[in-house]
Amino acid sequence: MNCKLAVAPKFTKWEPSTIFSDTPLDKFALVILNRELQLPISVYSRLWANAVYKVAADGGANRLYDLNKNTCNNISDNASPPFLHLNCIVGDLDSLRPDSRAYWVQQKVPIIHYPEQDSTDFAKAVYHIRNHFIGQHENKEEENQKSIDIVVLGDLSGRIDHAMSILHNLYTLQEKVDEENEYLAGRLYLVSSEAITFMLQAGTHKVEMENLERNQLFNHNNNQNSHINNIKDNNDLVKINKHVGIIPLKESSIISTLGLQWDVANWETQFGGQISTSNYIINNVVSIQTSKDILITLELDILSHQDETQHIIH
Q: At 137, is the secondary structure helix, strand, or coil?
């Protein structure tokens, strides 16, 4: 009698909140889009310190320049700007202001002109990182360094067409996975003022929120706003909050979930049909199986420096 052991399906593991920690799990590059910067400066400072390569996409350089200028004015005239050592500015440069350009030229930051109009500055920044940074650093630190994760700062407030363009780029720029469920060109995250968003490609995914003793889960049997666990790490800046959305951007998908208040099994989701928004996370690990590529967006909870003034750069 031949007995065959059941083989567990391969899955992709995600720990998105670690990009905000003192010790991120994976190296990442940082892209700053020409969008409002609405989070506390402590969050941007942490991401800046964690990133191994930093690119401003055209007018994103203006946002950084204004943030440096305003921060120094708010602290003291002798304070050092918090966002130095920008690696480059890329794009068609139609939004780069003269004062911002002069500032970054003085800082000896390369300004790279990509004039073609068939791609956005978001896309140009991602292509630049994948084609130049990885090529320059390949085989220097790790023999098999073929990819790098990319964190994009891009708020979704304001014009709907701009927001849709950002989500479109997030979808199209996330390259496919290999046989081991590894993302070939690295993972792409979008950080906005209230959420972290990324693509789950067809397959099985497990999204970890935090370690159990540090997680903020929500008791769906009692008050939906009550925390199960207290925060134990005062160095934490950002956690995943309770709300989650799972959205099919391109085509309908059949999804199954485990770990949400309203779990589904073999459920079709599509625009014009049903989509899962404003669901609640009730486990520290959420499992999602999807037949097609989908977008997941997780609400952020800013834990540290609650009294810190938000730095909105228009």
A: helix
Q: Indicate the average pLDDT of the chain.
A: 84
Domain extent at residue 117: 12-302
Long-range contacts of residues 129-132, Cβ cutoff 8 Å, at least 24 apart: 129/29, 129/31, 129/53, 129/55, 130/185, 130/186
Q: Which residues contact 143 (CB under 8 A, 6 or more apart)?
A: none
Estimate the share of the chain in helix, then strand, then coil, as percent rounded to the nearest 5: 25, 30, 50
Of 209, 187, 186, 208, the closest CA to residue 198 belongs to 187
State the pTM of this model. 0.86
Q: Is 99 helix (H, G, I), strand (E, B) or coil?
A: helix
**How many angstroms separate the CA atoms of 228 and 120, rounded?**
43
DSSP alpha helices (H): ranges in the chain?
41-50, 60-75, 98-106, 121-128, 134-137, 160-173
Look at residue 314 and tell me if it is in a domain: no
| Within-domain flag for 308 | no
Structure confidence at residue 222 (pLDDT): 43
In a domain, 312, yes or no: no
